[in-house]
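wait is this the right file?? whatever heres the structure
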């Protein structure tokens, strides 16, 4: 399945088809994976998934760099490539979670915008699903 020009991993397509792609109620899962609690978690259906460039480009130019970030060697990746990332869930305002296709189009990593920037929370969607108890 292709969403906004990027291929969804098979594991994610299966989670959605099985009705398992839903935000967990267990706040502890979010603390373990993201290091902070969610505000209003939402795991997006395919029709609401889209490239990060769609929403980043709508943000005022003065604030856009906050959402794009910059590379950080200590907590990679630090930044996001809006054209090679796909928004898959949101933990609340200013807490997006995306697939990052820079490592691989076939097996993207999962990244989260927190402090100090975009951080990899799982090397694959399979690992992410396991960590989140999906």
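ok assuming it is, sequence goes like this
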């Amino acid at each position: 399945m292709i969403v906004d020009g990027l291929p969804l991993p098979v594991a994610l397509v299966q989670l959605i088809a099985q009705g398992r792609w839903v935000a967990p109620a267990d706040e502890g899962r979010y603390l373990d994976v993201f290091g902070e609690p969610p505000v209003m978690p939402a795991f997006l259906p395919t029709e609401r998934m889209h490239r990060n460039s769609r929403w980043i480009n709508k943000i005022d130019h003065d604030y856009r760099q906050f959402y794009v970030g910059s590379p950080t060697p200590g907590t990679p990746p630090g930044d996001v490539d809006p054209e090679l990332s796909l928004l898959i869930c949101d933990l609340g305002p200013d807490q997006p979670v995306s697939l990052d296709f820079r490592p691989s189009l076939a097996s993207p990593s999962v990244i989260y915008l927190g402090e100090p920037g975009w951080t990899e929370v799982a090397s694959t969607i399979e690992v992410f699903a396991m960590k989140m108890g999906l």
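The first strand starts at residue 2 and ends at 3. so i think its the right one actually
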